[in-house]
Amino acid sequence: LLEAMQEHQVTVAGETHHLPRPFFVLATQNPIEMEGTYPLPEAQLDRFMLNVVIDYLPEADEVAVVQRTTSGGGEKVNALFTGEQLKLFHATVRQVPCAEDIVRYAVRISARSRPGQAQTPDFVKDWVSWGAGTRASQCLVLGAKARALLHGRTHVIFEDIVALSQPVLRHRILINYRAEAEGITTEQVITKLIQTTPEN
């Protein structure tokens, strides 16, 4: 998994197979039935761009899902675009301008999540055992660029970074036993980081 995500290849029995582009790893995690599954090490978790929490559907949506999946055959899936077109989308996202102040804001959020640094707030020193690395800052900015396009803008704003903070950071910040004992969650730490990190 680590080789696929970082090197874009897999090695089996000494033979290396390069993975075609575009390629990505999508994983699901059931927080209830953990038997038979193993927590991933931090190095692997860090290579996932986002950690998205999906809760139960509202009743009306769940009714619609049940109706569609229990009547008739499955719907035909039609491709909306090709892999080559997706690579062009990726290139377009990377070209979205992001002002240096906003990049610095993303970097500052990640840096302030690290215990033992000069700029680390006291609540991070108290509750966090491991903070976000440089890849978190990269993912905040890249995700913000994609969000800007999805919202019809051609540039990133601070709000994009804030909106991406939970899914980008929740699997990169590890809280300690003190935080758990006090009922503090990673999401609460991230919210406090956003609230206390100045934009300028």
In total, the number of strands is 4
Instruction: Tell me the helix content.
Output: 40-55%
- Distance N to C terminus: 38 Å
Strand sequence of the main sheet, in spatial order?
1-2
Polypeptide structure, described:
A hairpin with a 2-residue loop joins strand 1 (9-12) and strand 2 (15-18). The strands form two sheets. The protein has a two-stranded antiparallel sheet. A two-stranded antiparallel sheet has the order 3-4. With 200 residues, it is mainly alpha-helical. The chain has ten helices and four strands; from the N terminus they run H-E-E-H-H-H-H-H-E-H-H-E-H-H.
Give the arrangement of secondary structure elements:
Layout: H1 2-7, E1 9-12, E2 15-18, H2 42-45, H3 59-69, H4 83-94, H5 100-112, H6 122-127, E3 128-130, H7 134-150, H8 158-169, E4 174-175, H9 177-181, H10 186-196
Antiparallel strand pairs: 1-2, 3-4
Helix pairs in contact: 5-7, 7-8, 8-10
Kindly list the characteristics that best describe this protein.
mainly alpha; 10 helices; single chain; two-stranded antiparallel sheet; 200 residues; globular
